[in-house]
């Protein structure tokens, strides 16, 4: 039987392709959208990471979610620096979630409060993605909008505390393989991971509607 880390990756593969090739992502990474679209996207990430990381302290001692909670992953301080750069010092006052973002953050909070294994699904979907494809997004963003390499605007993608992302991802997969859950619960985690991908795709859909290419 495949390991749990392989199972969760394989099970979400199709939705990964869908998210990756969404119109908004394709346009953003294809250099067809302005920096405003990138800023709006970064704002949406703020709501998602606020939900993920507000719960981190409490979940650190949880037997299931606890091992995944690592200070070197925390993204909120970097996101806030990026937003200050992108939007200016008043960034917080102008920050608004899309309806899809609100739904996504609400589901993360719900899992964090009621179902730590479900929180792990959301944790995996975001942080392992950021450590992987996030690096591609950073490179494109630097090139397209002229951010300093690994500097303000793209700090969200820079994990200062992780010297070797490949090794970190290997260890993370080992944590997944050792997750304290029976087979049925593992199936539920996989289903939640798919839901997490769908929530991300819905945010891209909302952003795509706000930034149609004809208006870019
Ligand atoms: C254009 C956007 C994206 C690109 C180019 C991209 C690219 C990649 C690449 C190349 C990997 C493989 C890394 C490896 O094997 O070590 C990866 C893994 C991953 N990506 Fe993405 N990705 C994108 C968007 C997303 C989104 C929107 C999500 C979900 C929010 C996501 C979640 C993940 C996850 C969870 C993994 C880890 C899979 C695993 O090894 O278990 N990605 N991505």
UniProtKB/TrEMBL annotation:
InterPro entries: Haem_Oase, Haem_Oase-like, Haem_Oase-like_multi-hlx
Superkingdom: Bacteria
Keywords: Heme, Iron, Metal-binding
Alphabetical list of PANTHER family matching this protein: HEME OXYGENASE
Protein name as annotated: Biliverdin-producing heme oxygenase
């Amino acid at each position: 039987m495949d390991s749990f880390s392989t199972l969760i990756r394989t099970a979400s593969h199709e939705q990964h392709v869908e998210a990756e090739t969404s119109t908004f992502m394709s346009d953003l990474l294809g250099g067809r959208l302005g920096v405003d679209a990138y800023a709006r996207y970064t704002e949406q990430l703020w709501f998602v990471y606020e939900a993920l990381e507000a719960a981190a302290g409490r979940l650190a001692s949880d037997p299931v979610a606890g091992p995944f909670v690592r200070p070197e992953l925390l993204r909120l301080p970097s996101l806030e620096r990026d937003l200050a750069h992108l939007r200016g010092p008043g960034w917080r006052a102008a920050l608004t979630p899309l309806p899809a973002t609100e739904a996504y953050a609400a589901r993360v909070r719900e899992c964090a409060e009621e179902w730590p294994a479900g929180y792990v699904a959301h944790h995996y979907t975001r942080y392992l993605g950021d450590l992987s494809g996030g690096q591609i997004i950073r490179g494109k963003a630097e090139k397209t909008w002229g951010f300093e390499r690994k500097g303000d605007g793209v700090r969200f993608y820079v994990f200062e505390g992780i010297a070797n992302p490949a090794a970190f991802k290997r260890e993370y997969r080992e944590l997944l393989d050792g997750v304290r859950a029976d087979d049925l619960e593992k199936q539920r985690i996989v289903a939640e991971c798919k839901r997490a991908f769908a929530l991300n795709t819905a945010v891209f859909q909302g952003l795509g509607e706000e930034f149609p290419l004809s208006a870019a």
